[in-house]
Amino acid sequence: MPNGKRFDALKMLAGGPKPSRREFMKFCGTMAVFMGMGPAFAPAIADALMNKKRPSVVYLHCAECTGCTEGLLRAYEPFFDEIIMSTISLDYCETIMAASGQAAHAALEKAVANPEGYVCVIEGGIPTYHGGEYGKVGGETMFQLCARVAAKAKATIAMGSCACFGGVQAAAPNPSGAKGVNQALAAVGVSAINISGCPPNPMNFVGTVVHLLTKGMPKLDHWNRPTMFYGDTVHAHCPRQEHFNRGEFAPSFDSPEAKKGWCLYQLGCKGPYTYNNCPTALFNQVNWPVKAGAPCIGCSEPNFWDDYSPFFHPIEDGPKG
Amino acid sequence: MSQTTATTTGKRLIVDPVSRIEGHLKVEVELENDRVKNAWVSTQLFRGIEVILKGRPPEDAPLFTQRTCGVCTNTHALTSIRAIEDALELKAPPLAQLIRHLILSTLIIHDHLVHYYHLHGLDWIDMASALDADPVEAGKIVAATSNRDSDPSNLFIVRKRLKEFVAGGQLGFLENAYFLGGNPVYRCTPEENLILASHYIEGLRIQLELGRAMALFAGKNPHAQSMVVGGVTCYDSLRLEVVDHFRRIWAKTKEFVDNAMMPDILLMAKRFPEALNYGKTSNFFAFADFHNPESGNDPYFKSGVLWGNDLTKHDKLDMGLIDEHVARSWYEGDTARKPYDGVTAPMYTSYEDKEKYSWSKAPRYKGEPMETGPLARRALAYARKEKETRTMLDGFFKAASMKPEQLFSTMGRTVCRVVETSMLINRMKGWIDETEKRVKAGDTDIYKPWKMVDDAKGVGTCCVTRGALSHWIRIKGGVIENFQLVVPSTWNLGPRCIEGKLSPAEQSLIGCPCPDLERPVEILRTIHSFDPCIACSVHMVDNRSGGIRKFKIR
Question: Residue A21's pLDDT is what?
Fold first, then answer.
């Protein structure tokens, strides 16, 4: 997809000329391959994306930095405006919604009461200490809000490592008692799909939504992550792996070996212990940390802030914890 | 959660959540004669990143602090790096400094653009009104106010998309928007609203490319990974095709800034002149940034202090005069401390009694609340008689028929944001040229090795999108002993201090009109003009006199 020919979906969605349709179908084909379905699955994706009635999505923000939403704004083919105008109905999302205060609250209650149901997306960890008073939205604790909204949802997606596993605020000593969605809300029967990463690649989120719309629940790993995106380690597809295999390691960031693009393991790279598709999916269509000479910090793994740090040193016996 | 209460002193209105910001924010105002008489701004989330940093290796701090905010993203990483480099007395090589300039300036432009159209925009743009627009007439306006031609085809497409969106009956992110059903405080014509709506969508496509531009050097966006203590690591980006790619995105963005953002802000200043008369604060300060990559001197953004809205004078900034107050914040005690010795000990009490009422601390300079951000930077440059700022702003004042002192207002804040975007994108060209020259010459010196020290302290400052950001580190035994972040939104949107002095945002709300309790648009315009970034979320509970209002599309 990153290198695919850009189709003007804007024109196509407005009923533009036929060649745009062909390009749209090409996109659907690329997305099908990205999801590991093969090109024959493209028409089903096209149908789902062109749905007349858009599925309702309620997007909640908890203890987070909004980096996952920012990542989603960078979605490419489909673009963010296409996602919210043509694919889903983003009925609640504090970052971009027009309404504030009571008007926002009313939009939330309307979406939650929708008889056709909704998908709940949660970004951020959920503070649990002292009755959850470390985080409130509209006077309600984040814990209460997520519990009642996610419990009634058709499906729940935990967007980003904070929602999946608690995230940076859950790093020791976890001052606010932040927890991931599944950890905090298991008692109310919530089992969220985890799209981990800090932030996750937006295409992993979009691909998961497309899968839910076309084929239902994707296959998940033991951390509830879709295996189509989190099935292999970063190391498995790393272009620097041949250097690893030959024992060619960069000893420092200013070394000739670093300049030559040798393996960053000795500088702390956690790629061998990290399940994600960064080397193949790329971020922003052009780059990813290891390509930019920076060691992988393992940001899609549970408790990586504690278990995978210090970040610029190898962990001899693998991650702690 | 959202009652209007009548008290002896007048009506109260709570807006929670405040949407279209980063983070969780709550605003409460007391009203008299349809104007704000008193205000409280409360941030609603505590995460404790300063506590988490203690005892960790200093060089890991940039990765942690960057997660303070995914909107400001790499600015926190960069500021932590500067604090540690200050402690180590380390200077990164010129090419590394240049690459940091490219990443930081792109981020500021990205942030200003997204704030202007996607966060602040719906306070001014009536998307429903755009449905009634004549695209051909709108095209003529575009041609008359910018260097773009009058071709209406894109405007036809945008109107069609909006019509189809609305016809489906699912309003999604526009549900309960304050302009639905018609609202007299939205003053643009249908054609103007269509142009603005088309820029809202075009802006979404541009910001995605700006994210890509950052990723070319940063590894990814949000959350850069290639910026480290000592320099940057992106040897793979030191290629002419990468610089060319960056330059193409820069050129496309410049075209958008020149022909969409600049004409749009002039239109808004003309259509909403009343917003030039409220939202005032008194004192301003800024840090310096974008220093010469070789000498480390001659910053493009200069530091300083401006007191009492006096555009004829400016003061030098003294970092030793910054204190953080916690008397009215949900932290233990009431002792104001210097950031190096700052303490983050959470203690939630309650909101209602307003003794303590926010998770934000209250930074003060010489004991005074100070606004920071694009308005502070431009007002200071204007007071300093910097030629570029003077030319841009004086031209704008003339075109919009506004007075210089009207900069100190809700609309003035937004004017400065857009003017600064234009200045910065022009300045970037030099940094791109210089990067290209060094890459062409085979410069690969982007990292300076260092050794962690046992005992040291350092401060890093940065001119970020929303103002003056500083990180303060104390290192002991080679690990972090104390780490404090003093962020722009704490300066702008914090609570009162121990002397009861209102924060800039609280001060700006005093006198703000609020004629429609159900649709407090002016309050949102004023709060949004600060571009709040609470790194959690702001929540406005506005007051409702009756049941839920039914909104209908015209």
Answer: 62
Question: B252 to each of A316, B149, B152, B203, B454, how far by Cα in Å?
Answer: 47, 16, 20, 11, 48
Query: Chain A: residue nearest B534 by CA?
Result: A65
pLDDT in tens, B75-98: 999 999 999 999 999 999 999 999
**What are the backbone angles phi and psi of residue B466, rounded to the nearest 5°?**
-95, 0
- Tell me: pLDDT of A150 over 80: yes
Residue B44: its H or E element: none
DSSP per-residue letters across B209-276: HHHHHHHHHHSSSSS--SEETTEE--GGG-SHHHHHHHHHHHHHHHHHIIIIIHHHHHHHHHH-GGGG
Do the beta carbons of residue B404 and residue B441 sit within 8 Å?
A: no
Task: Supply B114's token pair.
Answer: 């997204």
Among the partner-chain residues A80, A100, A106, the one whose CB lies closest to the CB of B548 is: A106
Cα B416-B418-B419 angle, rounded to 5 deg: 65
- The ipTM value here is 0.93
Q: Could you tell me whether strands A178-179 and A155-159 are parallel, antiparallel, or unpaired per DSSP bridges?
A: unpaired
CA distance A299 to A308: 9
Q: Do A61 and B537 touch (CB under 8 A)?
A: yes
State whether residue B229 sits within 8 Å of chain A by CB: no
Taking each helix axis from N to C terminus, what angle separates B387-400 and B262-271, rounded to the nearest 10 degrees?
A: 50
Which of B45, B165, B348 faces A63 most closely, judged by CB atoms? B45
Q: What is the pTM of this model?
A: 0.93
**What whole-number distance in Å separates Cα of residue A112 and Cα of residue A209?**
19
Q: Which residues of B125-134 are buried (b: 16+ CB within 10 A; e: fewer)?
A: bbbbbbbebe
Give the bridge partners for A93, in sequence order.
A59
Token pair for residue A177? 């008692």
**Set of chain A residues whose Cβ sits within 8 Å of the Cβ of B178:** 98-99, 103
Residue B362 has, within 13 A of its CA and on its CB side, a CA count of: 32
For residue A7, what are its two tokens? Answer: 């189709």
Go through chain A and tell me how many residues it has. 321
Pairing outcome for strands B22-23 and B533-537: parallel
Closest CA to B487 of B505, B506, B470, B504: B470
Q: Which two tokens stand for residue A90?
A: 């983003």
What one-character DSSP code corresponds to residue B346? B
